[in-house]
Each structure stands twice: as C-alpha cells, then as structure tokens.
Amino acid sequence: MTKARVAAAVLTAVVLSLATSGRVQAADDPVPKQLGNAVVSEEGGCPEGSADPDCVTTVGIESMKIVKAVDKTVAKPGERVTYTLTITNTGTVPLTGKSVTDDLSGVLDDATFRGLDTKGGAAEFAKPTLRWSGGLAVGGEAVVVYSVTVDDPPKGDLKLANAVTGPRGSNCAPGSGDPDCSPPPVRIPLLKIVKKGEPKRPRPGGTVNYTITVTNVGTAEYQGADLVDDLSKVLDDGAYNRDGSATTGRVGYTEPNLTWTGDVALNAPVTITYSITIDDPDLGDGRFDNAVVSNGPGTNCPRGSTDPDCDEHLPAPLYDWGDAPDDYPTERSKNGAHALIVDDLRIGATIESETDGEDHEDAAGDQGDDGTTTLPDLYLGESGFSLTAVKVHNATGHDAVLAGWIDFDRDFAFDPSELARVTVPSGDPEVDLNWSGATYGEPGETFMRLRLFGESSSARRADFDVRPTGFGGPGEVEDYRMEVLPAEVKIVKKAKVSKDTVTYTIKVTSTSPNEFAASFTDDLTRVLDDASYNGDATGGATYAEPVLSWKGTVPGGGEVTVTYSVTVDDPARGDGVLANVVVGKDSNCAKGSEDTACRTRTEVPPPPDKPGNPSNPGGDVLVRQELPFTGFPGMPLAVLGLLLILVGGLARRI
C-alpha cells in the first residue's frame, strides 16, 4: 500500500468517528466553530479541493453564551432591583435539554424575591435558586427577567451578589471567571442617626445645644438623605438661635422644622448642630421633647420610630433596662428591652435607672427587681406554671399590662408561645401570671423577663407592642434567673385479693408543686392467661387488650389513683401466676426499672383433680398472694408459739 493510501485510510477513520456523533460540545471556548477536514487522494478519487461529500466531513459544535445584567449598582432599602439573563445559542447545532441556574443566596439575605418573566424556555424559582431549562435553535435566544426588593431594614451583608451557572460548553460553566456571569454586586447604603442634647438639666436663660450625627453604615454612598427635626415641643420654652450648621449638605429652617439634606459618604459621618435659648422666665411646660425623622428609606429613624437614638427628652428621662444575658437580648446595641421610668408606674416597690442593659450571667445586676421575692422552680413536664402575687404600682388612672416570658425550652430566646400577660387595674394590686402548654428543653438554668406596659401624660400604652425586646414606653423591665428541674414522678402499684377477684390500685404522685403531665401503661399479658379483665378501670384509664393505659395530669401536691380488677378463671388454665409491671416514662417505673413498687405477683393454686376437693369445698377459686417468708412451710402457728415459750424459759434458767 502506498503512503497516499495509508494516509487516506487513517483520515477516513477519523472522519467516520466524528461523523457518528454529529456534534461536539465546546469545552472552554464558546466561540462558534465547526470541525471540518478532508482526505486527499488522487488515486482514491479525492483530489485536493474536492467537494465530494465522501471526501469532506463537517461536525457541528454546541456553544452557549450567557450574559447576566442588573439595572443598578446601588439600591436603597425598599427599592426594586431587576436582573436580566440572556441565553444565546452561539453554536452551529440546536441545543436541547439545557439548564442554567442562578443561586440567589447572596441576594436574599438582604432582599425579597418579587417575581420573574421568561421569553423562550421555562424558568422557575424555588428559594434560593432560579432555574431556566429548555432548548434553543441555532442563533436562538432566551431571556429571563426577575426582580427583588431590598428589605428595610436589610439584615445581611448589605450587598446583593450572585452568579449564574451554565452547562459545559457555555461561558458560565462551573468555575468560570467570565464577568458576564457575575455582574458587580449591588451595594446598599444604610444610615445610623443619633441625636443628643446638652445639658441634661436645662435652666431658664441657658442654652441647649443639639447634635445630630449621621453615619453611613452601609456599603455605598447614601445620596439624597433628607432629615426633619420638629421643634414644636421645644419652642414653647425657648427660641431657635438660627445657628444650624452641618459638616456637609444643607441646613434649612422653616418654623417649627429644622431640615437637612445631603449625601453621606462611607467612613465620613455628617454632624449637624443647632441650639435654642431657654426663656427666662420659662413659661412653657419645662420639657424639651423632639425627634429627628428621615423622609428617606434605610435609616433607624423613619416616621413612627421608637428608637431612642432618634429623639431627645430634656430634662433627660430615666430608663429602666434588663439585666439578663445579652442573648435575649438585653443591651442597647441589640435593641434590648427598656422602659421609660415614670412616677406612677412600676413593678414592686422600687425602680432603678440605667443608661444601658447589663449582660449579667444570673440576672442579678438590677437591685430594683423586686416584683416577686418568691420564685418557684420549674419542673420538666409541667403542663402549667403560675407566678402569683406580683406586686405592681399603677397610679396612672388607666389599665396597664404586665407581661412575662419564660424561656422554657432554654434556647436563649423569649418566644411568643412563652408569653403570659394580665391586665393591671389602677391602684396597687397583686396580680398572677399563668402559663400553659410549655415546651421544655433539658434541665438547667433559664430566665424570665417581666415587662410592665402602661401610660403616661406623654405616651399611650397602645403605641407600644407587648414584646420582650426594644422600647416599651412607660413601665419597667425585670429579669430573673430560674431553674428547670427534672420532676420526680412516683408510681406505686398494689394488688388486693378477695376470693376470686384481684383488685389493683396504682397511685401516681409528683414532686412538682404545680400541675404535672404524666402517663403509664400496664401490660396484662401474664394476667390474662389465668384471669379476665372486668372492664372497670377508674381515673380516666383506658384499655386496649392486653394493655391498660393512663395519661393525664397530677395536681400540684396531690395524687392520681387508678383502680381496676380481674376475675380469676375457673378453672385457671395458665401458669398459675398473675404477674404484671406498670411502666411510666420519667418515673421510678421507667422501662427496665427493678423497683418493686412497680410490680405485683399473685399466685393461683392449680385446679382440683376432681370435683369436691376438700381444700375448696365451696367451689370458689382460691387465690394466694405471695408473702414474705416467715417460717418453715406447713409449721402450725401453735407449735411455733410453744417453741418460743420453751426457748424463753430456758433462757431464764441459764
């Protein structure tokens, strides 16, 4: 064979191999192309340049181009952000059964998915992933548009970042660094506003200096901030000095509102200052109460905010804070529970003011926590818990609310299901808080929070939600350490024999001083081979052969008694022993317990060999309950007594 024939044969084999698939998937290069080659053989009928299809083979290549775009690079809280995915078949063969995914995990920590629209193929969203699937003709295109709204306030890393992933043969295959697959993250600006006034105890003729600090705690410049400070409740006691200024932006004043507008860059807080001069004499109400409000989104001071950093009250009000561990939370930085101290509303006899919550491991940092002096322990399994005789002072002339949360499950959170509340009438009442349906965790330390929500001349209780955290208006906060203990359930079972009937009595008690949930089962399998259940169970017990069951509550300091009976068969045809064991979870009769109080054993004599057995002249079945050993079998009591007398006399002679 000539070299030409050998070359032709090899090339023919290559072409045939490619032709069997009909297409090749581009690995990393999405540029459309095709594989084409030709065999040349003068002798074989394939001269150079021949277009004979037997001499030339072309193989198409799959290729997909994905471009992800976003309509903005900065979005304030509350704004909508729209993403567009454009998927194009840039290959030379149709695409079928392809899918593209977009993981929104890095978006949904700060935003909420709003919806999608698709042109070409099909798309669906199952949090946190958006998925497109379908096919595309050569040059065909699919477009997926979806949007999210930035949360206000956002709770994540303050940026929306995600990337689209396509199949192999696309520019966005796994591991791709193509910028078309991942647009720049959308950054979120966020403002923290803090207002302060000095001095804390203004005097007639003096000056009150106000400072508002605006800090951008987000990830992008905040443009177009707009703040308003209403001085209505200040100007009845003084006059604005028209000295408003700011380190950047513009300060304006149209009585009674002082305004500021401007941009807030990252790492460049804006400071706004102004002052008033107090009248002398001061004929107003002696109070200087005003709050700064943001007209734009993404701040801690929207209209209606209860954040104490947004307002100032002079003379400075006093606040009461909690002192439980900060996981609950307690401190200002985590929006811990705090209340405005007023003269006519408190828990107990005293109340102490603080500037911040105290993260105290056993909630013992506030000496003013005196609403209750006797705090009972909690017991696992209690169906209810009561805190009685909590002392409250309410001289507001309006009803107040005392709320309590106990962390029953010990997860360091006061859950809505762990709340008890009671209305507190005006006066000096003692009130009770009652919890029910508690879900317990493991035994150990836990905490209770009491909060009093009331009214004053400047605030209504209705303006503040009953919640375990944040500012609650006029009232008080008291935190207490508690202990969750394992409750000891005691079960005692006894059997009483009367002729052919055995009556069983089961008593259940608990060490818990409160109502306690308990249960037990009593398997009668080894009783029913010699006896029949009489269907007479008391105390709410139920029977499903061969098991008698009871489930209910044991009253605090009390007991539950369940009785039932069986009648011995005549004749008894089993093993001659009525033996059974009561089993109660979390009790002395737990499964596998060897406590003798949980079991009974009663023997039944064997049936007589023939009628008229002299040991049973009446024909009744005799039942003998096993008793402790007291002597030799069959020894008459008279003989035993005589022996004792003889032994005693002998002892005297000796």
From TrEMBL:
Q: Which Gene3D superfamilies match?
A: Immunoglobulins (2.60.40.10)
Stretches the record annotates as Disordered: 353-376, 592-621
- What single Pfam family name could you report for this chain, choosing any that match? DUF7927
Transmembrane regions listed in the UniProt entry: 632-651
According to UniProt, the name of this protein is: Putative repeat protein (TIGR01451 family)
Keyword terms, alphabetized: Membrane, Signal, Transmembrane, Transmembrane helix
User: Which intervals hold domain DUF7927?
Assistant: 61-183, 202-313, 500-588
